[in-house]
Specification:
By secondary structure, the chain is of the alpha/beta class. It has a single domain (6-122), classed as Rossmann fold. The protein contains four helices and four strands, in the order H-H-E-E-H-E-E-H. The longest helix has 21 residues, at 102-122. It is globular, with a radius of gyration of 15 Å.
């Protein structure tokens, strides 16, 4: 509800020893979020993830693509929700994981490729 799940928050809270020793300094971070509503406060969730990465001294990988925001745009297009900070996906609350819009899936695949390509530059 406008943030990461409690399970992820519990994980993040347990990283304080890693934070203190700078164990994730200069590591790569990226994030995604899904909600039932087109906005669904996804920006708050990504901002929280980006802040956690910054607190750890990490390097944030953005989505790196332009939004599909013309009159002709459809939810099957890449980045139909217009994210920049990370991957934004919207799927109806009564949909199964098999019903995520194709544009969201394709954007996720492209984001995964971007993360892999950037990671290769740091290896």
């Amino acid at each position: 509800m406008g943030n990461v799940s409690w399970q992820f928050k519990k994980f993040a809270d347990a990283t304080s020893k890693i934070w203190y020793t700078r164990g994730w300094q200069n590591k790569l971070f990226a994030g995604f979020t899904n909600s039932a509503s087109p906005v669904g406060d996804k920006g708050l969730t990504l901002s929280w993830l980006q802040t956690l990465a910054a607190q750890h001294g990490g390097l944030w990988i953005s989505l790196g693509m332009l939004p599909s925001n013309t009159k002709a745009a459809k939810n099957t297009d890449l980045n139909a929700l217009g994210g920049s900070t990370g991957l934004l996906v919207q799927s109806p609350s009564d949909a199964s994981v098999d019903e995520i819009p194709q544009g969201g899936l394709d954007t996720a695949a492209a984001f995964g490729t971007r993360i892999a390509d950037i990671t290769k530059k740091f290896v």
